[in-house]
Write a structure and sequence with these properties.
With about 130 residues, the protein is of the alpha+beta class. It is built from two helices and eight strands. The two termini are about 25 Å apart.
Length: about 130
């Protein structure tokens, strides 16, 4: 049986930006209560509050973050699957962001109500 989790919807619209791999991390990236910066050999990706993103950036806006509440040991299996499977079954695309303690699943704001319904039907509780 899949894990039954408490999920929390974070406030505010997020945007996902793509910069060149060699770009410095811009100061505006950290102007949001929630942000994530990932550098790979191919790109610099920034997830941050949509209001912080300057005009002219390559951005996909309109995202909302769903927090998996709690601290999850790295040895636990199926935590993300218990959230991702109901969303995939509902045809909702996601972007996953993980931290040392927990995970976040981003869904388009236009599909947030559908995501909440799918996750609630899967047995998760949701606040926010």
């Amino acid at each position: 049986m899949a894990a039954q989790l408490h999920l929390h919807i974070l406030e505010g619209e997020l945007g996902i930006c793509r910069l060149d791999a060699v770009s410095p991390i811009p100061g505006w990236a950290a102007e949001s209560p929630f942000y994530s910066v990932t550098r790979t050999p191919d790109e610099l990706s920034i997830v941050t509050g949509a209001r912080a993103i300057p005009a002219g950036m390559q951005v996909d806006a309109g995202w909302r973050a769903i927090q998996l509440v709690g601290s999850f040991d790295f040895s636990l299996i199926g935590i993300m699957l218990s959230v991702l499977a109901p969303l995939a079954n509902a045809g909702i695309s996601v972007l996953a962001v993980s931290t040392f303690d927990t995970d976040y699943v981003l869904v388009k704001e236009a599909r947030l109500d559908e995501a909440i319904a799918a996750l609630t039907q899967a047995g998760h509780t949701i606040s926010g």
